Amino acid sequence: MKKITLLIILLTIPKVGNAQQLLTKDQQKVQETVVNFFEALSKRDSIALKKYCTADIVLYEYGSIWNADTLIRKAIKLNTASDFKRINNFDFISTTVTKNTAWTSYNLLSEIIKDGKKVTVQWMETVIVLKKKKRWQIKLLHSTLIKRN
């Protein structure tokens, strides 16, 4: 009986280990690009933000089409709250890399403090990322609002 139990445990371990897929270096870099993009947005740093996106980025937000200037105007320039703070939590669903093009989907949960009010917002997003001069940059971001409270 002990041998059968041990055999079952040993056969199960590799399957459990495979459940956590290891990311390639490029997949990691793509995910880091997304995280850094939102970190720049959270810090209201338009210069850093532009580093992580192409000059012709397209964002599909709330049923509208935005470019980098729209994002910077709405999320950085018009956001003058002195107590502003945003904490982002990512749950990456999948990341695929094919040569110099990649796409990743993730759930984003952000806690935002602004004008003394705390709001939690959840999105499901997909981005297309291009590799230019050995650096990944977001070309397209599609955002679906899941929940806001």
Provide the fold topology:
Blueprint: H1 2-19, H2 25-42, H3 46-51, E1 53-61, E2 64-66, H4 68-77, E3 85-98, E4 101-114, E5 117-132, E6 135-148
Parallel strand pairs: 1-6
Antiparallel strand pairs: 1-2, 3-4, 4-5, 5-6
Helix content: 25-40%
Strand content: over 45%
Shape: globular
Number of H- or I-type helical stretches: 4
Largest pleated sheet: 6 strands, mixed
Q: Name the average pLDDT.
A: 89
The sequence of SSEs as H and E is HHHEEHEEEE
Which short descriptors sum up this protein?
single chain, 149 residues, alpha+beta, 6-stranded mixed beta sheet, 4 helices, 47% strand
Could you provide a short overview of the structure?
By secondary structure, this protein is α+β, with helices and mostly antiparallel strands. The protein has helices at 2-19, 25-42, 46-51, 68-77; strands spanning 53-61, 64-66, 85-98, 101-114, 117-132, 135-148.
Question: Could you characterize what this model shows?
Answer:
It is built from four helices and six strands; from the N terminus they run αααββαββββ. A six-stranded mixed sheet has the order 2-1-6-5-4-3. It is 35% helix and 47% strand. With 149 residues, it is α+β, with helices and mostly antiparallel strands. Mean pLDDT is 89; it is low at 4-20. A hairpin with a 2-residue loop joins β4 and β5 (117-132). It is globular and about 45 Å long.
